[in-house]
Amino acid sequence: MTARTMPEAMIFDVDGTLFQTETLLLPAYHATFDRLRSEGLYVGETPPEQYILGSLGMLLEHIWQQVIPESDVAVHRRADELLLQYQVEGMARGEGLLYEGVAETLKELRARGIRLFTASNGLEGYVKGVIRAQGLEPLFESGGLFSAGEHSTRSKVDLVRKLLDQYGIRSAWMVGDRSSDVEAGHANGLFVVGCDYAGFRKEGELDEADVRIRDFREIVGLLPER
Q: Keyword Secreted, does the record have it (predicted)?
């Protein structure tokens, strides 16, 4: 598949691709550690923000292994619950921002007949909550907001494969900002668009992407002429 082939579908990561994660995540992150301390589950200062930001794109169990490796699994699971709770509460207050041009670009892609999906390593409530709170849900395929939390997949490769199989998709682009997105796309034979604007990635993570963009709106320009 080449960049000039019209895809049947596009599959989007959420954090760092569609959504400016830090605008919702960081207040919830600090609230989570305040609560863990009040419950006697954590002692000490809140780990630096770069620990959680640098772990975005991982499964949650791996994120907490990076952020608080000294804590046991029960604390990690409690942190999962609290982080989701505080993010959902933040969404209800209208917190969190899309990257510039995301809504308009998704509308244009949908108008061109491209089926839209998400594939995120996040929890189901978070992924669906973000898309709904931002008013984007009508643009996506019915049932197409895939997350590792809902489908219990062990990798994004497996999550994307499950999505492709369930919807009978034969050609698609994978769009994301982390190496897990590149891996998931190529392992499933997809064209990969690397989003190089969030700033969470490590050096070299997007080197194997088929194309890299610095603005979400550039995706439309990659499509072949109608």
A: no
Last residue of some domain: 92, 111, 143? 92
Q: Which of 3, 11, 42, 215 is nearest to 116 (CA)?
A: 11
Residue 134 belongs to some domain of the structure: yes
Please state the φ and ψ torsions of residue 202, each to the nearest 5 degrees.
Answer: -90, 155
Q: What is the DSSP letter of 6?
A: P
The CA angle 8-13-17, to the nearest 5 degrees, is 110
Q: Within 13 Å, how many C-alpha atoms sit on residue 17's CB side? A: 33
Q: What is the pTM of this model?
A: 0.89
Domain that holds residue 55: 22-92
Q: Structure tokens of 210?
A: 């088929």
